[in-house]
Amino acid sequence: MSRTYELALVVEPRKTEDEVQAIANQYKELVEAAGGSIEEIDHWGKRKLAYPIEKYTEGSYAFLYLTSEKGIAWGGIERRALQDESILRHLVVRTDLDLKRAERAKVEPKRIRPGDEREERAGRRDRDDRGRDRDDRGRDRDDRGRDRDDRGRDREDRGRDRS
Amino acid sequence: MARRRVFFRRRKYCKFTAEGIEYIDYKDLNLLRQYILERAKILPRRISGTSSRHQRMLAQAIKRARHLALIPFTTD
Predict the structure, then answer these.
(1) In chain A, which residue's Cα lies nearest the Cα of B23?
(2) What is the pLDDT along chain B (76 residues), one digit of tens a residue?
(3) ipTM above 0.85, yes or no
(4) B69 to chain A, minimum CA–CA distance in Å?
(5) Which phi and psi angles does B28 have, rounded to 5°?
(6) Cα gap A153→A155, rounded to integer Å
(7) Interatomic CA distance for residues B43 and B48, integer angstroms
(8) Which of B23, B64, B70 has the CB atom closest to A50's CB atom?
(9) Could you tell me where the beta strands, DSSP code E, fall in chain A?
């Protein structure tokens, strides 16, 4: 089972194209030392950034596409990228998971769960009392407007148990 | 007494499901830009009609692109 990764690098704009290529190759070797094999390196060259990073408004983009049989220990590589002052951003992405999940979804049919039948029967029962006057509204106390003088006490007219 | 719907909801479908797309690439900016608003906010599902699964992938791709400064976090 071969994993596929992408390593994205954004390099500061003051580096020349050759320097950017050199940096990309540097990481290519790091990856290969960690057990990966580079399929392709894609250079986008200088691009305007969507927002300034470290005061720069442009950056050079490089993408490394690679595969590996076993996992790669990215920790060391990422740390290098973080420490490298000429690398503004980096991103490691694993690209085989979504495709793997898609394959699995196609192959396995939906399993029937045993609880489904029970759900059918225990639906909410219809009380069949819509529309009619249930005759359970509270009685008219005929005490609007006056001071009922009943603060504090329990009036004893809370709705009765209607069930 | 049912209230009549004042407006109809247009039949919205998920473009990704329709085309059977499995992976949304954070580098595909033309695609991503169709799903962000003027202020660079991510389009909600009820407007774009995207399926929940693809919306999650979309959002993740957009956030990655933002991290790499390929699309902005906000505009103004």
Answers:
(1) A98
(2) 555 555 555 566 777 777 778 889 999 999 999 999 989 999 998 888 888 889 999 999 999 999 999 999 999 8
(3) no
(4) 5
(5) -85, 80
(6) 6
(7) 6
(8) B70
(9) 3-11, 37-53, 56-68, 87-94
